[in-house]
Backbone:
């Protein structure tokens, strides 16, 4: 009888220690679920903090999708916030995205030259008049025809998105204008620019919608989310703005 009591006591003690060990292990695992990652875990911190993982600023669509063309003048009272970047003036709000994109292009062996940015109204009118004069001289056009044609390539002050500070022009390896389409940098931008919020503003197949001829070096900031969707939907800015307007009415 005494042996039985000793045997039962050993079993009870063993069970108690087993339960205690199991509880301790379970508590340890549960605590790990709720504790923040250790301060030395840079990977975890970078995933939690967009500013440390290459995150870009996000702006309202009233800025990013501002539509300026021959039919839509620059909004009254619009204030551009200018900053100097790579020898050009652009709106300071696009600098983080522009900087990241150009650095990535350089890393990938496709260095870009920023050859155009913000142009004020007077400057845009001068560009327009210069193009009119060039067309009249070289194309032997009347002034009326030259003015109409210049609208498809340059645009007048007040009706050009160059005044928004959100548009930029690239060149590379001595190639600019139409020649930029044959540069490897153009193909890199066609593939990657949307991930930094930029779109090719005047594609060749959308001329009837944009009112502008194909300009391979002209890119416009619209925000990453919008840029990715526009490429997915094969839409230019005019189409996308109309699409969103229709969606909001439904």
Residues:
């Amino acid at each position: 009888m005494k042996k039985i009591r000793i045997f039962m006591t050993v079993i009870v003690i063993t069970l108690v220690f087993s339960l205690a060990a199991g509880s301790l292990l379970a508590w340890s695992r549960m605590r790990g679920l709720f504790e923040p990652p250790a301060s030395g875990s840079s990977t975890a911190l970078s995933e939690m903090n967009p500013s440390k993982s290459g995150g870009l600023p996000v702006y309202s669509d009233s800025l990013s999708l501002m539509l300026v063309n021959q039919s839509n003048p620059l909004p009254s009272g619009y204030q551009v916030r200018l900053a100097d970047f790579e020898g050009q003036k652009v709106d300071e709000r696009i600098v983080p995205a522009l900087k990241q994109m150009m650095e990535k292009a350089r890393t990938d062996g496709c260095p870009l030259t920023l050859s155009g940015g913000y142009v004020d109204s007077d400057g845009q009118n001068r560009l327009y008049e210069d193009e009119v004069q060039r067309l009249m001289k070289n194309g032997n056009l009347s002034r009326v025809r030259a003015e109409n044609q210049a609208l498809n390539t340059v645009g007048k002050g007040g009706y050009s998105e160059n005044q928004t500070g959100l548009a930029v022009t690239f060149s590379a390896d001595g190639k600019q204008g139409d020649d930029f389409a044959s540069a490897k940098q153009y193909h890199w931008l066609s593939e990657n620019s949307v991930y930094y919020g930029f779109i090719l503003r005047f594609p060749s197949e959308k001329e009837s919608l944009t009112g502008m001829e194909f300009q391979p070096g002209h890119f416009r900031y619209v925000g990453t989310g919008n840029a990715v969707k526009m490429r997915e939907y094969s839409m230019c800015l005019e189409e996308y703005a109309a699409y969103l307007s229709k969606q909001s009415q439904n």
About this structure: Strands lie at 82-85, 88-91, 113-116, 167-171, 198-200, 218-221. The mean pLDDT is 84.
